[in-house]
Structure formats: structure tokens, C-alpha cells
Batch of 3 targets.
Target 1
Amino acid sequence: MFRRIPNAEHQCIGHLISIVLTIQSFYLSVYDNKPLPSLTWIKSSNNTHGYIRATIDFSVGPKPISAIGYRARTLNEKRRDFRLFIADPSNPVKPMPNPVFWFTTSLVTEAQTNTTIVCSLTIEYPQEGWEGFFIQVNFPGPNGSVLELTTETQIVPDTYPTDDCHNESCAGTLV
């Protein structure tokens, strides 16, 4: 089980209720011996776009309430960075805004049966910088709770703004 929280900084300020409700749904399901949802995915990319294909199997677990895609674009080609705050270059212990926001986007339903839904999200490479995207699926939980699960994040293009480093050449700094 995996969950990414869009538009959250490291302390998840503003998202704590959502996190607690997801944890509640998970623990109540385990406590009540209810089957948990099944969400699997594959990620791939080529020279022009990236792709995530999510398979939701509800043959044993709950049927999803909804599924949505999220996407965000970095501010430039110098930072492959999707955080809301970064370290201030003049004072690394001080946070500085990095306004990279996640927006919802539509999914494509590739297949659907009585027990399975397969949906996907395809994102073209941006002209500059990077684009990240993932799929979120919401499931009903015990006592009216909702369990929110996500795929991993796919980032395109799969490149970095710096060269590879090895051993002593990998001196890092806070960013």
C-alpha cells in the first residue's frame, strides 16, 4: 500500500485530517478482518511521453469510489524538484517557497469488468524541466471511512540536471 499526498510539504500541514482518516480506514479494515483493496501499477516511458497503468482488483476487496490523476511541472530545467518549499540558498536552514503545484487530470479507462478496472495516465515530455504524475484511487472503508491509495510517481523525462557522481566526487549540499 502506498500513498502520495499532493501539495503537501514535509510536515503535511493542512493534510493531517486526511492522513488520519486514511490510517483509520486501514486499521479498521485490519481490525475487522475486512479485505484490503488491491492496487497494482506499471510505469514506463519512451522518447516522447511517460505512462502509468493502474489495475484495481476488487474481486475480494472493496470496489473503488473514484480514481483521479495528478500532475505537476517543475519551475525550470535546473531543479528536478516537486517540493513546495526548498532551502534558501543564502540561508539553508530557512525554507523558501518553491511553488510547484499538483493539479488533477483525467484518466483513461482501458478496461473494466465486474471485478477489475484498468486505468492509465499518459503525459508528454514538457518543453523544459520535468513533469511528475501519479494516480490516486479512493476506496470505501469501515464506518464511513475512505482509504486513499496512490501509485508511485512517474517523472518525465527520466533525466537529472547534474552528471552522475561516484565516491568522493559526490559532495552534496542542501537544496
Target 2
Amino acid sequence: MASKTKKVYVSYNQLHDIIQQTVQRTKLCEKFSPTLLIAISAGGFLPARILRNILKGELGGKSLPIQTIGLCLYESESNEIYKTQWIATDLVNDPLAISFSGQRILIIDEVDETRTTLSYAVSELEKDIAKQRATSSQEWIEPKLGIFVVHNKSVPKRGKLPDEIMTDSYFCGENVGGEWIVYPWDALDIDEHTRLATSEMKASELTLPSDEND
């Protein structure tokens, strides 16, 4: 009989602490100083909101907008991904479009498992950036893309991120194995979830990633 995947529970307090400690440990503000946050629906919602508040404090209250993208991954042989929500990027025809020129764009999700979703998000944003660059009537300042995840699973990746992101602007809270991470927004009984998170998440179960850029 196959063994069940181990569950690790993360409470709201632990989530907040992981994000805050990651900002400080990786020197995120000094190294990247985001100007635009993009939350991947729906796991990136709460981490993005917590991260925004922490970054605003680090950056002296500077405005830091959050945009949302929705992606749906169909688990099949082709592992196709479809957009369910995206950012308005047509500067010529859409008055609500966002200019990427000069932006430092931080894409946020709760977990990097197969890397398929993150890879797709970066690829599609790079296409939008290229279109804006080609049609820009003003001086163009090349934007920079970064990734922030609460957890990175140390499992084989199907997706690939650009080397410049992995080297300079990939920010990870904690490296974990293949365990099933249960986040607080997944809970039906939040009190029981918090109890499990407090009693079962031990320091030995999660290993802080080394910061190779220091």
C-alpha cells in the first residue's frame, strides 16, 4: 500500500513571518525594489497582500500596486495552460492598460512545484513587454521581472525560468520536499488548522534556502 503524502500545515502567523523574514534575509528591497506586484490567482493573493504591506514599510510607504493574473493548468500529457484573467497591456487602445516601461515586476505565488505556471506567466509577460517595446512612442526603459514564492518544492521541474531571474531575482521563503503544504486559506476549521500548524511544523522539516547572491 502506497504511503500517504505527508501534510505540513502553515498558519496565518507563520505565513506572515516567512514572508517578512524572506524580505529581510534576501534584501529584496535593496536588490529588486519592486514597483509592481502581480499575484497569480488564487494562491498568490494573500502572500501578495502581506508582501505589499511589508514592502511599503521597508520603502517608506511608497505606493505599490497589485495586479492579478489567472491561469488554469489542465493536467494532461500536454499540460496546457489557459489564461482566465490577465493584465490590460494594450497602451494604444486601452486607457486602463499598464505600461511596463521601467517597471520592476515581482510575480507572486504561494508555491513553486513543477514551475509550469510560473514559467508560463513569465513567458506571456515577456511577450507583452515585447509588444509594448515595439509600439512605444516614448523612451523605453527595459523592465525587470522577478519571482517571489513562499515555498519552493525540491522536486523535478517541468517549467524553466530565465537564468537572469534565477540568478538575480528569484526570492523564496523556504525550500521543502514533496510534502503537501496546507495553507490557512484551504482550512474549513481555522482553529484546528492553526493548532496543527503550531504543533506539527518543526524547524527540521523546512530548510531555509541559501542566498547565493550575498
Target 3
Amino acid sequence: MSSSPMRAKLAGFSAAVVLLAAACTGTPAAPSATTGGPDGTGSTPTETINIGIGGPFTGPSALTGTEMKNAAQMAFDAINWQVGNYKLNPVYVDDQADPAKGTAALEQAIVGQKLVAGLLNWNSSVSVAEMELTAKYKIPWFFGMGAAGTVNEKFTADREKYGYWTSKGWPDPVKLTTAYVGTINDAIAAGTYSPASKDVAIYGEDTDWGRSFGAGLKNDFQASGWTIVSEDYFPQTQTDFASLMSRYKSDNVPVIAGTSTAAASITAFIKASQDAGLKSLIIADGLGWFGDWYTMTGSASDYVLDSVPGFATDKAKAFQAAYKEKYGSDPSPAASGLTYDWTNFFIKLLQQTLADQGSLTSETIYKEAQDKLWTGELTYTDGIIMSVYDFSLESIPDPVVGKGHYIFPVTQYMGGDRIVVWPDDQASGTLKPKP
């Protein structure tokens, strides 16, 4: 866990960031120290509260964590880290993509720096572990990206205890894997893809996320008549896949499907498939979470399927340009874009809490989550990735998933470009088999 003060004020931003502030938030690009942000109070800060910002800032998922940290900072910078008369002090909780390290860092932050609330994280196994601490200390945590069904199971089993892990920024993967299977089956029906067999190999990182995603793929493929010939799960740190690729080639598996959240691992997997001369159609969920994915894979990523959002709107493109100008690297829609939106939703929740209850404490923020976030009364519609971010009593802790809510298109990579191949109403091309 690390903690550092804000190092750059919005007034020092480039012209690109000025454009971003106008396009994405509708708030002044450089609020003064007395504006109090877009909640309209216009007061000078008289209190400071510590807000935890979680993520894997070091370790195997550090590239993702860095993007998350940067995007969150941009959102908070736009309100001068202030809501009403409250100054928000960031406490960065570096979980290193490891449950034990994550809980140690979070407990240190909660006890040592008196967190009032927190937001974000990335890995499911970390989420499951950290839920114990948010429950123990009654600290509301928002929009953790750990998506695996194990988070939902724990939340649902004892909502009174684990409700402090109030919401997820990424839904249970079983709600998203159907898109891949539908894409492939639709291509077969349309005659654009003709696999030699309906065999599929499942792979993934050996984490709650990887296994939950793999289980979703397995169920969806089997339900539509496919045969699972193998399942392989590996450490997040693994980068040698030569023997696995040799087996895939020997088995002549037409479809290989899985996920990894570690940039070094998933890109090594993709490059190893090219080195082995595989002609399989590969689903690599999460490859596009890293802004520099093509730099890391090159042509090995051609024909690979992924399910990621894009920077499609003017607001999204303004954010993309501002991020690159500020940090010198390309942001990914998943790690940076979603983080930016969820952080702005968190800011809106703080503003609404202050308006409704007159103060920002762990108790009032949690009550606002229960009363308005969980019920769907409080939503966020000014995002750059999804058109609407909302929850319901039926979906919680997941956001509402579906068209017009939280949904990812399926893309096929080609020459460093993303070609949307599903759903039809968003498609810019059709699925192509590897020649």
C-alpha cells in the first residue's frame, strides 16, 4: 500500500485535458480551491477524509493497476479532490494482485489512515479476501473490478455482513461468456466459419477470476453442443507455454478459449501460439485490457477474439487523448476507461450523500449505497464507455447487464485494430478464421 498527495492540479493540464473536462464532466476544467466541485456548494474545504483507491499497482498486473490509478486521478483532479466542504485525500492500496498482500495493505490503510470509504480493485481473489476487512471495520467499498462468482456468493450468503463490499465494477463472468459462444455459433450458422470439429480447449490463470470465467465458457460451449477436450489453469506469472501449445497442436483443437489478467502472461500465451504455428481460433479475454497490447504481441494477436469496450464517442476520444498527453501511453478502455467512469460515479454518490444526509462518513455513505445505489435510484449516465451504469436489488452486487446497460461487444484483432464482430447492430466486420 502506498499513499501520496495529489501531484498535479487540473490547472496545469494540457489543452487536451481542458477538452476532456468539458466533454466528459461538464464541470470547469480548473476549479479553484473554493469551488467545492460540481455539487454546487461552493464552500472552502473545512474537513479532510481519506478515500482508499485499490489496485495492483505493483506485481504481475501492475500495468493494469497503473492505468487504473492514472484514470482515477484524472477523475478526482477534475473536481479538485473536493466534494462540498470535504477535501478528499487519496490513500493508494497496492494489493499486488495477491490476496495476502492485499489484505495486509488494506488493513494498514483502514487502521493507520482511517479510511472513510474506498473504491476499485482488479483481481477477484483479492476482492474475496478484502471483503472480510470491509465487513470487520464497516468501511464501504465501491466498484471493485474483481468479477468472479465467488464474490457474488459471499455477498449473497450474508449481505448484512458483506454488504460493505457494496458493488462490483465488473459483473460475474458467466454473464459475459455467452457472447463468445454466440459469436462463434452465429458465424458457423452464417457459413463464415467451419471448424473441423466442435472441440474446445479451456485455459486460464489459476485464480477465482480465471476459473470462474473458464466455468462460464465450459457451460456455454457444452450447452450448445461443443465438447471440452481439456482445461488448463496456470499461475499468473507463467510465461512459458511451449508445451501447452504443442499439445493443442497435436490435438488439433479448433477453438482455444480463456483469460488472464496479467499482461506478461496473456501476451506470452498469444505469442507462443504463433510460434507453434497454431491455426486455432483463440479467445483471449482481457488482452485488450492493456493499452499497449499490440506492442506486446504484434501480429500474433491477429484473428484473436476478445470482448472489450472501445473509445467510441467524442467524450471517450477526448479522454483517450488527454490520458496519452498526460501519461505518455495509450489507455485501454477496460482498465482506464471503466475506472474513469466508476470513479466519476463514486464522486456522484459522494455528492448525493452530502446533499441527502449532510455529511460524509462511513455510515452515511453506506446508507446512501443501500438506499439509492442498490435500488437503482442513483445511476450514472455521463460515462465514456457504457451508456448507463446502474444496479438493482436483483443484480447487486453486479451492475445491470444487457443492451443499453453494461455490455461488451466481441472484437477480432487484425493488424492492431479492433473489428467488432458481435452483436450485429454494432458489427463493423465478420468473424474470420485464421488461414
